[in-house]
Design brief:
Ribosomal Protein L22, Chain A, three-stranded antiparallel sheet
Length: 135
């Protein structure tokens, strides 16, 4: 199950610290972890996680086995503001925002879009050409 949070007014760099901390954890463990994490993005991430759990319940999945399979934090809109500086000049201030996508999956199941493992170089079977027989 997925849940989205669009235009969250904090820079993606700071939100990724929280997202990477909960990636791969079970839902119950992540909720406890986020409640004690001293970051500003922890509360919106906790609300987003509870929204994803509600989506999973609505779809009829078991909540006990759910794991956070992926957390994706992308760049949102950037508000451009100006700060007055010396001698009538101005510097630009970028107020960044984030788009957060949280995906839950059953424990042991592959995440959507996860690539298959590539076979090792020596594991490929070699086939030989069949010899032609004279008739």
């Amino acid at each position: 199950m997925k849940a989205f949070l669009k235009n969250y007014r904090q820079s993606p760099r700071k939100v990724r610290l929280v997202g990477d901390a909960v990636k791969g954890k079970r839902v119950a463990d992540a909720m406890v972890y986020l409640s004690f994490l001293p970051k500003r993005a922890a509360l919106p991430m906790q609300k987003l996680l509870s929204s994803a759990v509600a989506n999973a319940k609505q779809a009829g999945e078991s909540v006990d086995d759910l794991v956070i399979s992926s957390v994706r934090i992308d760049k949102g809109i950037v508000l451009k503001r100006m700060m007055p500086r010396a001698r009538g000049s101005a510097f630009r201030i970028n107020k960044r925002s984030s788009h957060i996508t949280l995906t839950l999956a059953q424990k042991g199941a592959k995440a959507v879009g996860e690539k298959k493992a590539v076979a090792k170089k020596g594991a490929v079977k070699k086939t030989t050409k069949a010899k032609k027989t004279d008739k």
